[in-house]
Amino acid sequence: MTQVSENKVFGGRHVQYRHQANSLACDMRFAIFLPPQASENHKVPVLYWLSGLTCTDENFMQKAGALRIAAELGMAIVAPDTSPRGEAVPDDADNSYDFGHGAGFYVDATEEPWSAHYQMYTYIRDELPTLIEQHFPVTGEKVISGHSMGGHGALVLALRNPGLYRSVTAFSPICNPSTCPWGEKALSNYLGEDKTAWQQYDASILMVKLEQDQHIPALVTQGGDDEFLEQQLKPDTLVAAAKGNDYPLSYELQPGYDHSYYFISSFIEQHLRFHARHLGLA
Ligand SMILES: N[C@@H](CCC(=O)N[C@@H](CS)C(=O)NCC(=O)O)C(=O)O
To answer: Which InterPro entries does the record associate with it (predicted)?
Structure first.
């Protein structure tokens, strides 16, 4: 692991690292925020933040305004990149923003040529937390959150791995990727045309299948003036799935907010405090 940058912030540290990711067969950069409470004598829990299309580890750390609250709560934050990277990693032929580099969709691809590198589900679930827990003063307690494509990733990881995370939240998640243009493009390319393979990456489908003892606290916040709301995000499908299965999902539609980090920064404190309650920090 190689350190790329370090900044003191709110009494804690924001540090970027590069490392060789075995699951992705490439070099990856991630960022970690360590709150002032973190030390060898005091390990802290971790929030994994999954960003949306076009993002790297930097968008959330620079724009969300999360670090002041995380410093107060004593919560580490890890922000990975949104896809495998580098010249050896195949990208979309059209260089589009919604597939390939910057658009890994947090799936383990099974189709050529994507499957050699696009294994973001395994990277986020297994490889990255193992690395983080080896090198930093953190406990094994985890929560997960994300935005848009990353909101989809956070929900899927939490729903498929009961017990791995204490709570899950999402901002404007892609709730039903099997039936929206972003999801159809990504899942058909990464997983193939057989839609049964897509179901394991569709939060609205996963949510109806879970038993009561597999439920974890979940919060979704959506901007009412989000330009992607109707065609891409489809929160009503997720809300209906939760209702049908008594899933403890809090859903909040916030009028007037769009899809941007202005929206995320307006509600990130609420999300961090939600996670802190379920981690027993507050
Ligand atoms: N119009 C955007 C579409 C992609 C987009 O809205 N990305 C969201 C996530 S889905 C984002 O977080 N963008 C980066 C940022 O706002 O910092 C673009 O072409 O970049």
So the answer is: AB_hydrolase_fold, Esterase-like, S-formylglutathione_hydrol
| pLDDT tens for each residue of 221-257 | 999 999 999 999 999 999 999 999 999 999 999 999 9
Q: Is 236 a catalytic residue?
A: no
**By percentage, how much of the chain surpasses pLDDT 70?**
100
pLDDT for 245 equals 93
70 lines ligand 1 (CB under 6 A): no
**Residue 59 Cα to ligand 1 middle (Å):** 9
Structural tokens at position 206: 């996963």
Q: Is 84 in the pocket of ligand 1 (CB under 6 A)?
A: no
Torsion of CA 128, 130, 134, 135, to 10 degrees: 10
Query: DSSP code of 61?
Result: H
Residue nearest (by alpha carbon) to ligand 1 atom 19: 97
Catalytic status, residue 259: yes
Q: How many angstroms separate the CA atoms of 207 and 156, rounded?
A: 9
Ligand 1 centre distance from Cα of residue 31 (Å): 19
* Owner of token pair 């929900």: 155
**152 CB near ligand 1 (under 6 Å):** no
The answer to whether residues 79 and 57 touch, using CB atoms and an 8 Å cutoff, is yes
Provide the pLDDT for residue 182. 98
148 included as an active-site residue: yes
Among all chains, which residue has been given the structure tokens 């990504």? 186
